[in-house]
Amino acid sequence: MTSFPGPYSGIAYSLMRMMFAFLYLSHGLKWLFGAFGGRPVPLTPLLMTAGVIECICGTLMLMGLFTSYAAFIASGEMAVAYYIAHISRGSIWPIQNGGEITVALCFGFLFIATFGSGPISVETLLGSSRRR
C-alpha cells in the first residue's frame, strides 16, 4: 500500500515538525514574555524552567537542529507538565482536564525524536540528518 503523499512525505513530515515546534515555542514565549496575547503570569521556578525549555527546544526543532535530542527533552517536559498541571484537575482523561494539546505534543515529540529532522532542516543542509 502506497501513502497518498508518496514522494512528498518527507516535506509533509518536516512541515508537521515545524508546526509542532512553533506551537511549543509559542507556549514558551507566552510563559516568559506574555507573547501572542498571553498575560505574563508570576513566574515560579517551575514555570520559568518550562518556558526556557520550550523556547530552546522549540527553536531547535523549528530549525531542524539537534532535532531528536530537543524533541526527546520536549516530550519529557510535556509528560511532566501533564502530570503536574492537568491530572491535578481531578481527572486522568485529557478531554476532562484540558490536557489534549499537552498529550498530543508529548507523543508528537516522541515521534519526532525517533524520526529526526526530515528533509527541510538545518541538519539536512549540514548533511547530518538521519534518513528513513
What does this molecule look like?
The protein is built from 6 helices and no strands. It has helices at residues 9-33, 45-63, 67-86, 94-97, 100-115, 122-126. It has one domain. With 132 residues, it is an all-alpha fold. The chain is 67% helix and 0% strand. The longest helix is centred in the first third of the chain and has 25 residues, at 9-33. α1 (9-33) packs antiparallel against α2 (45-63).
**Which sequence of SSEs, written as H and E, runs from N to C?**
HHHHHH
Oligomer: single chain
Report, as a whole number of angstroms, the end-to-end distance.
17 Å
Shape: globular
Main sheet overview: none
CA-based gyration radius: 16 Å
Summing up helix and strand content along with how strands pair, one would put the structural category as: mainly alpha
Helix content: 55-70%
Report the total helices: 6
**Total domains:** 1
| Average predicted local confidence, pLDDT | 90
The total count of strands amounts to 0
Uncertain regions: pLDDT < 50 for 5+ in a row? none
How large a portion of the residues is in β-strands, by DSSP E? Answer: under 5%
